[in-house]
Design goal:
It holds the Pfam family YlxR. The protein is α+β, with helices and mostly antiparallel strands and 91 residues long. The chain is 22% helix and 23% strand.
Length: 91
Protein backbone atom coordinates (compact mmCIF):
# COMPACT_ATOMS: atom_id res chain seq x y z
CA UNK A 1 0.00 0.00 0.00
CA UNK A 2 1.36 3.42 -0.99
CA UNK A 3 1.95 6.07 1.66
CA UNK A 4 -0.33 9.10 1.31
CA UNK A 5 1.04 12.35 2.80
CA UNK A 6 -1.44 14.44 4.82
CA UNK A 7 -1.39 18.23 5.07
CA UNK A 8 -3.40 20.82 7.00
CA UNK A 9 -5.44 23.66 5.50
CA UNK A 10 -4.13 27.00 6.83
CA UNK A 11 -7.67 28.39 6.95
CA UNK A 12 -9.86 25.70 8.56
CA UNK A 13 -7.06 23.56 10.11
CA UNK A 14 -8.60 20.38 8.71
CA UNK A 15 -6.19 17.57 7.83
CA UNK A 16 -6.64 16.00 4.41
CA UNK A 17 -4.58 13.99 1.92
CA UNK A 18 -2.12 16.29 0.13
CA UNK A 19 -3.72 15.66 -3.26
CA UNK A 20 -7.05 17.11 -2.11
CA UNK A 21 -5.55 20.49 -1.16
CA UNK A 22 -4.29 23.43 -3.23
CA UNK A 23 -0.72 24.50 -2.48
CA UNK A 24 0.12 28.20 -2.18
CA UNK A 25 3.69 29.51 -2.33
CA UNK A 26 4.68 32.77 -0.68
CA UNK A 27 7.33 34.34 -2.92
CA UNK A 28 9.08 37.71 -2.90
CA UNK A 29 6.80 38.93 -5.67
CA UNK A 30 3.61 37.76 -3.94
CA UNK A 31 1.65 34.54 -3.96
CA UNK A 32 1.87 31.76 -6.47
CA UNK A 33 -0.74 29.01 -6.75
CA UNK A 34 0.80 25.59 -7.27
CA UNK A 35 -1.87 23.06 -8.34
CA UNK A 36 0.83 20.51 -9.17
CA UNK A 37 2.32 20.73 -5.68
CA UNK A 38 5.81 20.38 -7.14
CA UNK A 39 7.23 23.92 -7.33
CA UNK A 40 10.25 24.59 -5.10
CA UNK A 41 9.86 26.58 -1.90
CA UNK A 42 7.89 26.53 1.30
CA UNK A 43 4.18 26.32 0.73
CA UNK A 44 0.91 26.27 2.60
CA UNK A 45 -2.28 24.43 1.73
CA UNK A 46 -5.93 25.47 1.42
CA UNK A 47 -9.13 23.50 0.72
CA UNK A 48 -10.05 24.12 -2.95
CA UNK A 49 -13.63 22.88 -2.47
CA UNK A 50 -14.56 25.04 0.54
CA UNK A 51 -15.15 28.74 -0.29
CA UNK A 52 -15.08 29.57 3.44
CA UNK A 53 -11.36 28.75 3.38
CA UNK A 54 -10.75 31.45 0.76
CA UNK A 55 -12.05 34.35 2.86
CA UNK A 56 -9.68 37.13 3.84
CA UNK A 57 -10.33 36.61 7.55
CA UNK A 58 -9.43 32.91 7.38
CA UNK A 59 -6.25 33.56 5.39
CA UNK A 60 -4.82 36.27 7.68
CA UNK A 61 -3.03 33.71 9.84
CA UNK A 62 -0.92 32.71 6.86
CA UNK A 63 -0.83 35.81 4.65
CA UNK A 64 -1.08 38.69 7.13
CA UNK A 65 -1.68 42.01 5.37
CA UNK A 66 -1.72 40.34 1.96
CA UNK A 67 -4.70 38.12 2.84
CA UNK A 68 -7.15 40.18 0.77
CA UNK A 69 -5.06 39.81 -2.41
CA UNK A 70 -4.68 36.07 -1.79
CA UNK A 71 -8.42 35.70 -1.16
CA UNK A 72 -9.20 37.44 -4.46
CA UNK A 73 -6.66 35.29 -6.33
CA UNK A 74 -8.11 32.08 -4.89
CA UNK A 75 -11.67 33.13 -5.74
CA UNK A 76 -10.68 33.95 -9.32
CA UNK A 77 -8.67 30.73 -9.76
CA UNK A 78 -11.15 28.40 -8.09
CA UNK A 79 -14.25 29.74 -9.77
CA UNK A 80 -15.97 32.20 -7.48
CA UNK A 81 -18.28 31.21 -4.65
CA UNK A 82 -19.52 27.81 -5.79
CA UNK A 83 -16.16 26.05 -5.69
CA UNK A 84 -16.69 24.50 -9.12
CA UNK A 85 -13.37 24.49 -10.87
CA UNK A 86 -12.14 23.05 -14.12
CA UNK A 87 -8.51 24.18 -13.71
CA UNK A 88 -7.36 21.83 -10.96
CA UNK A 89 -6.01 18.43 -11.96
CA UNK A 90 -7.90 15.41 -10.69
CA UNK A 91 -6.29 13.34 -8.11
Amino acid sequence: MKHVPWRMCVACRRRRPKGELLRILLTESGFQLDPSGKLPGRGAYVCPDNPECWTEKRLRRFAGGRAKALSEALSAFLGGKDGQNTHLPAG
